[in-house]
User: Fold this.
Amino acid sequence: MTSLNAESLKKQLSGKMIGHHLLYYDEIGSTNDEAFRLGEKGAPEGMVLIAESQSSGKGRMQRIWYSPPGANIYTSVILRPPVGTLQSTQIPIAAGVAAAETVNDFCPGRAWIKWPNDVLIGGKKVCGILAQIKMSGQAVDFVVVGIGINVNLAREQFPHDIQEIATSLAIEAGREISRPELIIRLYENMAKWYRELTRNGFTAVRERWLSLSEMIGKTISVKFHNEAVSGKAVGLDEDGSLILLTANNQNMTVSAGDATILKEVNTYATGN
Ligand code: BTN
Assistant:
């Protein structure tokens, strides 16, 4: 199994916009928590944390992110975008695009984004993103983008309760994947989309997200705590919210929650 050679990663990422400062941990609570602490102490933009395992890996909606050693990627990057609050919520969308493109580099044409930024192959989750924003008054101080990718985990190594909904790159590609190569691609793609966002705005990021999204045009339900809303997913708003067309033909936006496709909308005439 390819190990995570921190020295070689440092060399390969030196001088890059993302990864020029790289911290490696054999084990950590959560790379996001540590990145947030370092961000508060003034850590520079582009600092990357990578861990072999996490004892308290965090997912969205207060979930636990399964983080055993030896097989996966757990990483966080600190960004200090020159943008306002609205645009800072576009960063996790750009990160989702970068992660989906990276997964596609290893499993061509098979990765899709589930709103807001889960990456799925064949309907099963292979990568999750947790972004945390630190504000200073009205200004964005920094954003931590945490990314977890299931890389070389075999099916039987997943906990039973997620075996049906999660997968790994190795399962899908049918071969072991080099984690260092994956990290390098991930941060190259991330730098590309972050640069696009901060220089030219949201247009190209949104277009790419829409082209990678499996939900647009489909009827979906979004659950947030005990409430659920449903409608046809028709677009992505400026702040990364999902735009739904509801049954009474009204547009509504949802900014957080778990989205599920309810049924496919058949847009083809059957000829019957
Ligand atoms: C999700 O629920 O889909 C988001 C999962 C994010 C997991 C990553 S692993 C690296 C970073 N550190 C954490 O504690 N969480 C993120």
